[in-house]
Amino acid sequence: MNLSAHFTLAEMSRSAGAIRRGLDNTPPPQAIASMRLLCLNVLEPIRAHFARPVAITSGYRSPAVNKAVGGSSTSQHCKGEAADFTVPGVSNIDLAQWIMRNLQYDQLIYEFGEAGWIHCSWRDGPLRSQELSAVKRGGKTVYLPGLVR
After folding, report:
1. Where are the chain's structural domains?
2. Is the distance from CB of 25 to CB of 15 less than 8 angstroms?
3. What pLDDT, on the 0 to 100 scale, is given for residue 76?
């Protein structure tokens, strides 16, 4: 099932963690609707601008999968509102800065620098337009305000 011109339900709900653990990661209809909005408002404009595929590393996560992979109990991934991704050949900071300057979004997180990924979310309703950077400090993930290298 296509969610948009370049993104499928299969790639937005694929989870190696779910497969390894034998967990169901089938999104409910509301999550599918949310993923469609995320694709149309965030992922498709990124693909069009950079003229490259967007590599999704995490999209929808069922609550059981989210818990198993150590996700936040309030993760937008569980609602189909968030995706983690990279664009091969584009630095993560350049990608995050382009998103910040050109798109609307709920939350934009530059996660773990150039070795990491971008987390971006979209929700139906008021958007927070929040930028954060995830870094490791003392073995724990800390979220800093803004896009910090």
Report:
1. 9-145
2. yes
3. 98
